[in-house]
Amino acid sequence: MGQGDAYRLAEEAPADWWEVEALYDTCFAPGRTALSSYRLRDGVAPVGPLCLTARDGEGVLAGAIRVWPAQVGSRPVLLVGPVAVHPTRQGEGLGALLIFRSMQAARRLFWPRAMLVGDYPYYRRFGFRRLEGVEMPPPTNPERVLGIELAPGGWVGVTGAVTKWGSAGIAVPAARPAPRPD
Ligand SMILES: CC(C)(COP(=O)(O)OP(=O)(O)OC[C@H]1O[C@@H](n2cnc3c(N)ncnc32)[C@H](O)[C@@H]1OP(=O)(O)O)[C@@H](O)C(=O)NCCC(=O)NCCS
């Protein structure tokens, strides 16, 4: 079976929160929340329709993706991740399915660009490329700062420090940040 077709994808519900946290604890090294990318998420609501869970036929959580809004200068950007697939389910295409579906939903919501901190050898297959002149809070290896255009030219002329959503020139909506035209 390929492409994760044994799994049901759904928007993450509030009741899923701690189960997804437990999955992330299983999949990532201890201390994951000390990473600088987590500081960009503190106190910011994730973009609900882009946060997905994948459950098998018995309802067991197999993978999840969360996505937050952030900004580069005063321009909106999606900060993709964490994305994780349970170790016993890896290599079935589920990670790819979660990323593809989440970015597909982001395009439908007119987000122009997305970024993440991750392994280029994995994310290149989705169209992510190394971002020049886009600075994550230290300590972050610039080689791992990757971006994807969700609209043509989405990253053209967009450089600077990545900061928390609402920190400079962007009004903070209540719960689900809406994309904004540039
Ligand atoms: C990364 C992750 C989400 C991928 O999920 P998955 O369902 O196993 O991925 P897919 O089935 O879509 O793709 C598997 C392929 O990706 C490759 N791959 C997985 N992680 C990789 C990485 N870090 N670098 C390069 N290739 C990677 C596998 O070798 C496999 O290659 P193949 O298609 O040639 O066999 C999953 O391995 C995971 O949860 N890892 C731990 C948490 C993590 O590192 N998350 C990403 C944060 S940057």
From TrEMBL:
InterPro entries: Acyl_CoA_acyltransferase, GNAT_dom. It comes from the Bacteria. Keywords: Transferase. Pfam families: Acetyltransf_1. The keyword Ubl conjugation does not apply. It comes from Wenxinia marina DSM 24838. One of its GO terms (molecular function) is acyltransferase activity, transferring groups other than amino-acyl groups. This is Putative acetyltransferase. Residues 7-151 form the N-acetyltransferase domain. The keyword Transferase applies.
